[in-house]
Amino acid sequence: MKKLIALVLAAMMLLSVASFAAADETKTLTIVAWDANTTGYLTAQKEAYEAAHPGVTIEYIDVSSQDYDQKVATMLTNDKSDIYMVKDIPALLNWYETDSCTDLNDYIAASNYDLSGFVGMETNYNFDGKQVALPFRSDFEILFYNKDLFDAANVEYPTNDMTWEQYKEKALTVADPTKDIYGTHYHTWLSTAVNYTVADGVNTLVDGEYSDLAYFYQLIQDLEDAGACMPYSEITAAGLHYSGAFGNGNIAMMPMGYWYVATLITNIANGTYNVKNWGLAAMPTKEDVKAGSTFGNLTGAMINSKSEQKDLAWDYIAWLCGEEGSKVTAATGNRPAWVSEGVADVMSALEGFPTDEGSKAALLPTYVAIEIPGMEYTSQISNILGEEHSAIMTREISIEEGIENMNERVGDLLAQ
Q1: CA–CA separation, 395 and 285 (whole Å)
Q2: How confident is the model over 315-337, as pLDDT tens digits?
Q3: 15 and 121 share one domain
């Protein structure tokens, strides 16, 4: 009996040691994010990574979306969470300036990590030569179009190598003011009106020189005067939202962020929208800009400089932002930052997505510029441009006067 008890105790001790060993092998990676409990792609990313990496558990720390940047700035003073999701570039720049970000350059070099799939987007997270984050989402600007209206007008669909002049011609041709059919539609934002100037990779909205915006303002005013798009003043007076405007079925084209795809698919499926047959095309470009160039915003991930698991955190970020993780993000209906045929295959396989090859090819931009980069005066510059934009679009002032005001006001700000 004593031998039996001894054997049982020995077995229990072995099991206990084994359980401690198993516990030691289990690692928890903490990720700070916003709306973690309600954001579908975060759940999908967690489940996919854990399934592919036994012994690793992802734990999200949820922070309110409304004041995420401010709360994170406070948390980073003493918090050791491994990864922080990046909501906007100005906030990331602040975190970098307080030494809260880990420079990823050594990790990128050591793993021979391929950055080409970001088509230039990763440079927006590079400060002073240090790559402090990588993007995993990018809702870039794309052209939505109503196939039925183009068919009715016997006009060829928009293509992925279209110039702005060709876009203008299509809008004028498809429009029929007598039937309340518009060739295109611009939402009230400055971004959907004139931000295309940054697609050349040279112009920005923070450089203090805005003569390059005049071309796009003139384009819109010409289309308004011809009845090819709704006047800005009517849209603002009616409080018309872009989603319902295009969904009504009488607008042939609309530049908008990729996020509208999910809304469009959902509302067509439930019968809310009149538009039925739609497609996607790359944003038009000026003749001296490479076809497929566009702009957008980024969502990224950075490693906390106080993390005690930097190697594991890098493994997760490399997976999340690369091909494999991007396919997981794409499968939830969201637009990954990574650009590849494989990711495009997943996105275009979403039920309700257009089946034509042109729409799928539009998912492969050649270059994506950031809408407005982070710098000291980004917020003030955005306010100035927004005020002058409104005055130009309502025609309270001429395009020339508005551009002059932008140059002068932002120039004074930058000179401080």
Answers
A1: 25
A2: 999 999 999 999 999 999 899 99
A3: yes
Give CA separation, 297 vs 167, 257, 407, in Å. 24, 9, 24
Q: Clarify whether residues 129 and 86 are in a common domain.
A: yes
Q: Structure tokens of 120?
A: 């230039």
Pairing of strands 83-86, 27-34: parallel
Looking at the fold, whether 403 and 326 belong to one and the same domain comes out as no
Burial zone of 320 (CB within 10 Å; 0-12 exposed, 13-18 middle, 19+ buried): buried
Distances (CA, A) of 205 to 353, 355, 370: 33, 36, 10
CB-CB neighbours of 208 under 10 Å: 18
Angle, CA of 181, 185 and 188, to the nearest 5° = 140
Cα–Cα dist 210/218, whole Å: 14
406 and 414 Cβ atoms separated by less than 8 Å: no
Residue 118 lies in a domain: yes
- Specify whether 125 is located in the same domain as 147: no
Q: 262 and 375: one domain?
A: yes
| CA 87/CA 66 separation, integer angstroms | 11
pTM: 0.88
State the Cα–Cα distance between residues 171 and 75, nearest whole angstrom.
Answer: 50
Same domain assignment for residues 18 and 76: yes
Number of folded domains in the chain?
2
CATH of the domain at 320: 3.40.190.10
Kindly report, residue by residue over 224-269, the tens digit of the pLDDT.
999 999 999 999 999 999 999 999 999 999 999 999 998 999 999 9
Domain membership of residue 18 as a residue range? 2-138+298-339
